[in-house]
Every structure is written in structure tokens, then in C-alpha cells.
Amino acid sequence: MRANSLSFRLIVSSAVVALVLLVSAAFLLNGLFQQALEHNFDSRLRATLDGLLANVELNPQGVPQLQGPISDNRFSLPLSGWYWQITSPDKKEGELASGSLLEQRIALDGTALQQRDKDGVASFSSTDSQGQNLRVIEQRLKLFGSQQDYSFVVAGNFDELKTEVLAFRRALFAVLGLLGAGLIAAILAQVRFALRPLVEMQHRLNDIRSGKIELLHDDFPQEIQPVADELNLLVQSNFEIIDRARMQVGNLAHALKTPISVLTNEARESKTPLAAKVKEQIDVMRDQVNLYLDRARRAARAQTIGAATDVEPVLQSLARTLQRINKDRDLSIEVEAPSTLRFRGERQDFEEMVGNIMDNACKWAKSNITVKAALVTQSGDDGRQWLSVIVDDDGPGIPAERRGEALKRGQRLDESKPGSGLGMSIISETASMYSGKIELSQADSGGLRVNLVLPAIT
Prior knowledge:
Order of helices and strands: HEEEEHEEEHHHEHEEHEEHHEE
């Protein structure tokens, strides 16, 4: 998946939004849970404070005392973190404290005592001698028979909440993590499902290029159906342009054929030097017209959408034809090609390119020619499949420094063999029209290796 693909953008943007929402939800839920725990903890302390108020009276000496034990055993365990104490504001009278305090007392925060709720309860944090964090509440009330306020203090071990908070956080993160993974999986499935019509459109466009179908069907979602309609119009327009180009090329060839024939006949009847010169130039004109008309036909065919050619039958047919032509030389032509291999282009162009290569190999080979065709992938071409046709002969070959000359128009490296020197350049030109190429190298047998690379249909 590329970074600039629609799938990547949709998945990343959705995943980022989901991640932000999940992280925000985690902080919010954790804060709400901790707030609820603190509120519940304060409620427990207030319940203890109310029970303490109901259980304390003044004895005959005017000193506060418990009428019965506190039900929570933690107030009896030494330094348990759960304490209560009762003192008079001036501390002139005796104090009453839980057994868990031993000889210690809870230090009161004077600033916090100034801030009380509507029930007159002040709350603040403190620590005991063991370093335990305490949550402390304090309320001042008059006992029956007393003229002064007594300070009732209850403290609880606030560190006990940490275990509950940590357990909740672990569970919360685990659940949100699973939820996040589920959301990512759902996003992936949703994006793949939503973009499936585009993938289907790509496959059908490939089918059009390979000649399996002519137009896109009208069964796409309404959002991309206009795109499909425009592509169908483009394909139809391409077919019409190709047809007009072929017709114009044929008309031009027919229009020039008669005047050239007339000039040729007139020049042939005259024996003057001017007639000989005219005949010579007419031959040049005929060659140039044929050359450029052939080039125009090849260019038109190369741009045709939907053209497809089976490779193996063409190679076998060319091999049989060339063996019959060179039967007096007893040449062996071996062909290896998968039966499913197809060239994305016109059969006539493929026959012309490969036929020229094989014919050239027959001219120079001693006894053996091998033709191998296969699918190849070129580096840096996004995995696109290409057709490679390799023709090896066991002839003298071409030196490395002169192979570039062999591809130039009209260049003949050896005048002892018949030919115009245009074959290799025509092959190179036609291959380039299909975005292909031709490469020359040394064969394993020591002769020339010609590698023709053309677009393939997979």
C-alpha cells in the first residue's frame, strides 16, 4: 500500500481519529472513575464520622468516652492507616483516639479547616508516621451537656485506592486496546469494501487493453459511474481516431500510387539523362512514401486499445517458414514459449519485428538458432509484466563496440550479405512505439543475442 494511495489515506485518517477518541475516552473514564472512588471514600469516612458521633457521650467528669466499640476492626490495628480522634479546640480537656493511633495524633491543617462544606465538614490530605497517605475529614459539634465544640476527626488510608485505580486502568486499557484493534480491522474491511469498485474498474480496463472486452459495464456505484461513462467515451473516441488514421493512410497511399506510377512509366519510355534522373528520384520517393506510410500504420496500431497477439503460434509459424526458405543450409530453429504468453499489440507488428530478427539470425547462423520467449519484470517499473523474446545464433556475432551501429537506419556492418540495413532500425522504432526496446549482446554460443522487450498481457 503506497503512502499516496486512497486506501492509505482513508485508513490512516480514520485510525488517527479513532486513536484520538480512544485516548480521550481513556483519560475521561479514568478521571471519572477516580473521582467516583474519592467521592465513595469520603462517603465511607462520613459514615464512620456519623457512627462516631452517635457513639460518644460525656462521662460524669465531662470527658468524652465511647459507649461501645467501633465496628470496623481497622481502627483497632496499630498504624493501620485508619484513625479517629476527638479533641476539644483548646485541648484543655482529655482527648479520645482510636487504638490504631497508639501515642500519635493526627495533625490538623489550619488552612483546610477554614474551608468547609454546607454541613460544616472540612476535608484535607495528610500522612502518618508510616508515610501512608491519609484522607482526613473533620467536623466540630457540641456533645450533650457540653458548652463547647469538640473536634471529631476521621482519617482513612487513601493508598488503598491506588490498587483499585491501577486495576481499573489495566482493565480499561486492555478493553480500549481490543476496541481499537477491532476498529482498525473494521476500518480496513470498510475501506477495502468501499474501494472494491475502483479495483474492479482497474481489472476491466486491463481486460479492455488485453482485448477481452470492449467497454466498461454499467454496474458501478453512482459516485464513479460517471467516470466509467467518460472512460467508455474515451475508448470509443480512441477507436474512431485509429480507424480514421488508418483510412487516411490508405487514402494517401492510394492517392500517391497513381501519380508515381505515371511518372515511372513516362520516365521509362524516355532514354534521356533527365528521364534516368527522374526515375531514380521516383524510386527514392516510392521508398520514402512506403517507409512513412508503414511508420504511420505501425504507430496507429501501437496505440490501439485491446489489441492482443498469441506469441507461441507466431514464433512457431515463423520458424517453419524460415526453415523451408533455408532448407539447403540445414538450419535448426528451436522455439521455447509458453502457450499462454500474449503480446499487447497487433499481430502484424509482432510478426514484422520477430520475423526480421529471426531472418537476420538465419543469414549469419552456422547451424543453430534458438528462440525463447518469457515474462519478465523490469526494475523500477512497478511490477509491470513484459514479454521478452530472445533470439540466439551461433554465427560470428557483432563486437560490443559496434552493436550500437547495427541499430542505426541504413547501417550495414557487412556488405557480403543481402539487405538494406533498415531491418534492425525498423524493429527498434516499432518496439519504441509500444514502449519496448531491443538489446544486442553476445549469445552463449558465441554469436549474436537479440533481446526484444515488449508489453505483455497477464
